[in-house]
Design a protein that fits this description.
The protein folds into two domains: about 90 residues; about 130 residues, Histidine kinase-like ATPase, C-terminal domain (Heat Shock Protein 90), CATH 3.30.565. The chain is α+β, with helices and mostly antiparallel strands. The protein has five helices and five strands, in the order H-H-H-E-H-E-E-H-E-E. The model has no long low-confidence stretch (mean pLDDT about 85). It is flat and about 70 Å long.
Length: about 230
């Protein structure tokens, strides 16, 4: 009798947890849809109206101001697209993460003078990734590429991402001028700290290997799930 009651309680607990997960899934889908449909469409209208009005302006100062409004609106739209991607549960897998990382890296680097090489996994697309870890992996890569474009003076960048069972490893390396980690005035400071904090949130690790004149290598690794 006791074993039967214990089994019944376990089954009830599992049903409750399953229902909670189903409800959370539906909430995430609804939030992603609302952000895309309502806020996203509003920002698109702001961008279009600003552009139309700017083209009709003869006052250069007003035209410049409207141009800035357009740029800000486009920037917010990009950020919202990232949030929608991160929130939607249909993207909580390695395949979606890899595709989004590739797309963003291409957009950031394609109009620069930097040559870049990707090494991403061709298998394991259906492996699950916790949504927060997924977003943090993506943002570490994005922050690293922003730093490279702004400060490194690199000619080549290599981005490697692979998975092994439930573990991931991300490596971004460049042949730029590098910097000394033990100085306080290098311009990477806050960005590097953000990367390390993002990884440490769930017990993962971000390492920085660099020195003056020897480029920079950022390695993030840890578990795909919590």
């Amino acid at each position: 009798m006791e074993s039967a009651n214990a089994a019944l309680k376990l089954t009830q607990h599992e049903l409750v947890e399953t229902e909670k997960q189903r409800e959370a899934h539906q909430v995430r889908v609804r939030i992603a849809r609302d952000i895309h449909d309502d806020i996203g469409s509003g920002l698109t209208k702001i961008t279009l109206l600003s552009d139309i009005t700017r083209k009709k302006q003869t006052d250069s100062s007003v035209s410049d101001a409207l141009g800035k409004v357009m740029e800000y609106s486009k920037g917010v739209s990009t950020s919202l697209s990232e949030i929608v991607w991160a929130i939607h549960p249909g993207n909580d897998n390695v395949g979606s993460l890899v595709n989004y990382m590739k797309s963003t890296a291409n957009q950031l680097l394609e109009n620069s003078d930097i040559k870049y090489v990707f090494d991403f996994p061709s298998a394991g697309a259906n492996v699950e990734v916790h949504p927060e870890i997924k977003r943090n992996i993506y943002l570490v890569m994005k922050e690293a590429l922003h730093n490279i474009l702004k400060y490194s003076e690199a000619k080549n960048v290599f981005i490697k991402f692979f998975i092994d069972n439930n573990h991931f490893n991300l490596e971004i390396s460049d042949d730029g001028k590098g910097f000394e980690m033990n100085t306080e005035d290098h311009r990477f400071g806050n960005g590097l700290l953000n990367m390390q904090q993002r990884m440490s949130q769930h017990g993962n690790i971000c390492e920085i290997q660099t020195s003056s004149g020897n480029g920079c290598r950022i390695i993030a690794h840890g578990n795909l799930t919590i």
